[in-house]
Each structure stands twice: as C-alpha cells, then as structure tokens.
Amino acid sequence: MVEDVNADLRAARVADTEEKILRAATRLFLDRGYAGTTLTAVAAAAHVGARTVYVRFGTKAALLKRVVDVAMVGDTAPVAVNGRPWFVLAVGAPTLDERIAAMARGGREMMVRAGGLFAVTLEAASAEPRLAEAAQAGREATRDNLRYFWTRAAGDGLLPDGHDIDWLAETSAILVHNETYLLGARMHGWTPERYERWLITGLTRLAAA
Questions:
Q1: Which residues contact 142 (CB under 8 A, 6 or more apart)?
Q2: What is the pLDDT of residue 53?
C-alpha cells in the first residue's frame, strides 16, 4: 500500500513537472518562435533544471510536438482527437446539421488553443524532419477522421445516395485543416468564430453537392 501511494505521488510530481514545462514552452514558442526558443530557456521559465527538460523531451522538436499535441486536444490525457466529446457528437448526433455544427465548433476551439503553435511548427518543419513528418501525419489523420465522419453520416442515412465518400473526405479535410485556418486568418483576417461559420457553410454545401 505504501509503495502504491509513493508511486502515485511520483506520478503526480512527474505530471506536474511536465505541465509546467509545457506551459513555459508554449509561451516561449509563441513569443520567440522556434529558432528563438531553447530548452535551457524553457527550463528557466518553468523553474526546473535544464537536465529535467532534456531527459523528458530530448530535443526541441520533440518538445514542440508534445506542446502542439496537448494544445490540439486541450489536456495531457492520452485521448486522440477522434475520442474527444466534440468529435463523438460530430459522428453521432441525430441530424447532419448538428454533426456539422459540432465538427465546426471543435475545429474552432482547436484553432483557439493551437493555431499559433501550428504556425510555429510549419515554419520549423523545413529544418526539422521530425516536425515535417508530424505535420504530414496530422494531415493524414485529419483526412481519415473526415472520412469516418462522412462514412458514419452516410451509414446513418443522413446523406443523399451516390455521394463519393473519398471525395468528401479529401475536400473537407482541406477545409478543416489548420493550414487553411492560418491562410484565412492571414488573407482575410478571419477570427476563430468567422472560421467556424465558414466551416459550417462549407461542410453543409459539400454534403448537399
């Protein structure tokens, strides 16, 4: 029993330290960019030893990837995007309008949390193969999640007959992806709320095409 308590305390300390590091790293990456952030600076901002950051993450690229992964879903729990409540609603709500609204709302919330970090990652990806691989994996995961979204909608009788699920998945994945949000923000000054409304319109029109 004592060993279990000690193990729980150690796990809690590890989790608390990681959260401090992630919060500090998030601030620095957003303020200084990728090139201007060092693991030593992150350690100082988190009030932990530099060795702690190096042992826990190893490289700056690995730390940024973890920061982005946590920002995307909103916490450190090991639950992927497609297991989050908003996505579960997006593939299970009674009507297609409700599903599209849930998808758009989830996309907006993700951009609020992680939009700036996505921009940092894309800028760093050209010099960091690990980040480039992560960015590509994210694009593919987005497409696969959208394919599941449309497949569920078709299976539940919420789409007209004859829809091309692959086309819907590929096209809507471009709509909802973070790079589209960043482009819209730069070109048109989109706010996350404007992006959400645009997503609802775009996904609704795709479904009716």
A1: 173, 176, 177
A2: 95
